[in-house]
Amino acid sequence: MEDFLWGFSIVSIVYVLRRLRKAMSKPPLSWVGQFLIDQPGEKATSASSESVIFSRENDQLPKGLPNFDVLINQGSNDDKATLIKSRKRPARLVLPETRPELDFGGMNNRELESREIEVEGRDFCLASKKGRRDVMEDGYSAIVDISGNPKQAFFAVIDGHGGCAAVDYVSENLGKNILKALENVGEEDVNEAIRGGYLVTDSEFLSKGVGSGACAASVFLRNGELNVANLGDCRVVLSRKGVAHTLTNDHSLRREDERLRIDNSGGFVCCRNGVWRIQGSLAVSRAIGDQHLKEWVISEPDIINFPLSSDCEFLIMASDGLWDKVSEQEAVDVVLGDDKNSVESCKKLVEISCSRGNMDDITVMVINLRNLI
């Protein structure tokens, strides 16, 4: 058997060498190309004894052929062939430079890696942690000592989506627009000024022609009264004698009244994987921005007024990254465990949410009401 295999190998090598020698002796094609074209033992099947090669430059090109060179080998004893012009290499595809940040007027050097923020101000503290997204889409606003009055303040927590452009703009301008509107109204029209501040912020942002949107919850403390406004699913919770009182109502598509409003205005609401979404995309029904959905995703906030009393202890304002995993009463209990209502209580709430599987951006702000009543 070994002798047979050895003899077979020698015959194969001799055959290959003969074919190579024959191919190299024919100049029209490279010896490799000729070797591949020639087939041993073939006989002519027609009176024609030449190989015909068509290309787009050849007048004989049949109609309907694709835009590349075509070789029709009719077979011959002489194996004649004509060398055609090689195909042109396609033009180089130039890709634009990738920019993972979706920003408005710059990203303020937002980091792409994991990021945590801690803020401890007068009468408030905050902890924020970036989730799985490339950029942080949560934000906040805090304005104290309004008009020189230490008992007058504005706070907001903002949760962006579709990029950080909207959240950056709202964080910078919502409070300013509300305070500006307050200058032009009387004491009885505070709610109207807050409403106007939200609508103006939305209109101004949309005029920039930049994508993305943002939910927001804000509180305005003035003359012993709390004015609470919200869009979307950011939430405000009051601790009163250790009991949690939710002061906002999420603008979720789980609400029948919100679905009915959208349906009546020609929108489409569907449930995907257990989550209600407008036009199959956004899971909140009110927000600032979202120009492509603006016909249905309105920026009209819900506003309530709440008189403060000595038994009002603190507020917890947070994005849905907290409330998806932590109940209102549990959050109040965690803050009550920290006598100073410090940033440590905010950090602990963030850690609890993350330990339960939260992968969204999360921002928690605690406001001490003792000095603001």
TrEMBL record:
Residue stretches making up the PPM-type phosphatase domain: 123-369
Entry keywords, A to Z: Hydrolase, Magnesium, Manganese, Metal-binding
SMART domains in the cross-refs: PP2C_SIG, PP2Cc
Gene3D superfamilies xref list: PPM-type phosphatase domain
GO molecular-function terms, A-Z: metal ion binding; protein serine/threonine phosphatase activity
Obligatory cofactor(s): Mg(2+); Mn(2+)
Domain of life of the native organism: Eukaryota
CDD domains from the UniProt entry: PP2Cc (cd00143)
Record bears the keyword Iron: no
Official protein name in the record: PPM-type phosphatase domain-containing protein
Organism of origin: Tripterygium wilfordii
Species lineage: Eukaryota, Viridiplantae, Streptophyta, Embryophyta, Tracheophyta
